[in-house]
Amino acid sequence: MQPVKVLDGVYWVGAVDWDIRNFHGFTYSTRRGTTYNSYLIVDKKTALIDSVYRPFTEEMIERIKKIIDPSRIEYIIANHVEKDHSSAISEILELAPKAKIIGTTQCKEGLEKHYFGDWDFQIVKNGEEISLGNRKLKFIHAPMLHWPDSMFTFIEKDGLLLPNDAFGQHLATSKRFDDEVDSNILMEEAAKYYAVILWPLSKLVIKKIEDIQQLGLKINIIAPSHGIIWRSDPIKIIKSYLGWAKGDAKDKILVVYDTMWGSTEKMARAIIEGINSKGIETVLFRLPFTDISDIIKEFLEAKGLLVGSSTINNGILHTLAPFLEELQGLKPKKKIATAFGSYGWGGGAVKDIEEKLKKAGITVTSPSLTVKWVPNKSEVRKCIEFGRDFAEKMIRG
Ligand code: FEO
């Protein structure tokens, strides 16, 4: 268990979780695993920036011991309360009993309510600094990015930003830096992370990036608490965050559906033919076969969405409900959508979908499309036209 040198006196001492496949209670599929990044700053005084998820405590401590005796740790910077970054603190404190925990007021409250420890805690104000000797740690409050307690730590001497969850990715790898991994995979995981965790907080993301720009922080390295460290081009991920937060997306349409006996599926396949006829990229997802967090990631980067369902009990198939509910929580901006589906007698699924899309704040274009029982040849043609017309609307903006 070797630490990884980030800079002279700055070491990655975290852990790689190769096996985790679901995060945040099955709301986020992590098929590439994750890492819990903890950083040791060795100076006249030593600080540990965040810790790891408890099952990985031993791994982190073994790495720390390769650099210093853990009893030398004087500060534990708790940028965030969530257990994947804090649940090893009590065990570190057994080895470093004089260490003081540093964080926000909300962090103190959160840690006390999670671990019930009588810990030495120092609350820091936004912009406050602590000197370690040659380096100073500057604390930047980042409330709701993504919890009320969230905070970034910045080391001006190195231009090193330690933003905890922000700019992270769930990506387990033996490599630690952006220039060592496949950049497409890295950006794919960074986008998924943004979509699932930060998308509903986009206004705050923009504001925090503007705050950092106004502070004039010169950022050379971004070392988040999950995944890869951005050292070759840290501005790339900041620009990507701004783009995602502002709703920048491609001319691309997602078709998400479920079907009872194949009629809605027949419609979906004809619809994508219509979209393709306009040269527009489209992706077809049937629920529940695709993980919702993967669809959400695709939707972050697409302008259009078509949702289809057969009707059951005057509403949608229940397999679509979690996806539509997730959209309501994400409140995506600058998207257009509409609905389609088959029915036998009363109908109702399409209306239900439209209402749910509107509740999510998505612009619903009309008309939607319904077919009774099985689509015949002329109805299949209508589905193709429907897809083509929707693509044209998206192109026109
Ligand atoms: Fe990675 Fe919000 O914890």
The first-level CATH class name of the largest domain = Alpha Beta
CATH architecture of the largest domain: 4-Layer Sandwich
Helix content: 25-40%
Number of helices: 12
Low-confidence stretches: none
User: Which molecules other than protein and nucleic acid are bound?
Assistant: MU-OXO-diiron
Shape: elongated
Give the CATH topology of the largest domain: Metallo-beta-lactamase, Chain A
Total beta-strand segments:
22
Over the alpha carbons, how many angstroms does the gyration radius reach? 24 Å
Beta content comes to 15-25%
- CATH homologous superfamily title of the largest domain: Ribonuclease Z/Hydroxyacylglutathione hydrolase-like
Please list the strands of the largest sheet in the order they lie side by side: 1-2-7-8-9-10-11
Q: Describe the biggest sheet? A: 7 strands, mixed
Properties at a glance:
397 residues, alpha/beta, Metallo-beta-lactamase, Chain A, 2 domains, seven-stranded mixed β-sheet, six-stranded parallel β-sheet, 12 helices, elongated
Outline the secondary-structure elements.
Layout: E1 4-7, E2 10-12, E3 15-17, E4 22-23, E5 28-29, E6 34-36, E7 39-42, E8 46-49, H1 57-65, E9 73-77, H2 83-86, H3 89-95, E10 100-103, H4 105-115, E11 121-123, E12 129-131, E13 136-141, E14 151-155, E15 160-162, H5 183-198, H6 202-215, E16 221-222, H7 234-246, E17 250-258, H8 263-276, E18 281-286, H9 292-300, E19 302-309, H10 321-330, E20 336-343, H11 349-359, E21 363-364, E22 369-372, H12 377-396
Parallel strand pairs: 8-9, 9-10, 10-11, 15-16, 17-18, 17-19, 19-20, 20-21, 20-22
Antiparallel strand pairs: 1-2, 2-7, 3-6, 4-5, 7-8, 12-13, 13-14, 14-15
Helix pairs in contact: 5-7, 5-9, 6-7, 8-12, 10-11
The structure holds MU-OXO-diiron (FEO).
Residues 80, 82, 84-85, 146, 165, 225-226 line the site of MU-OXO-diiron (FEO).
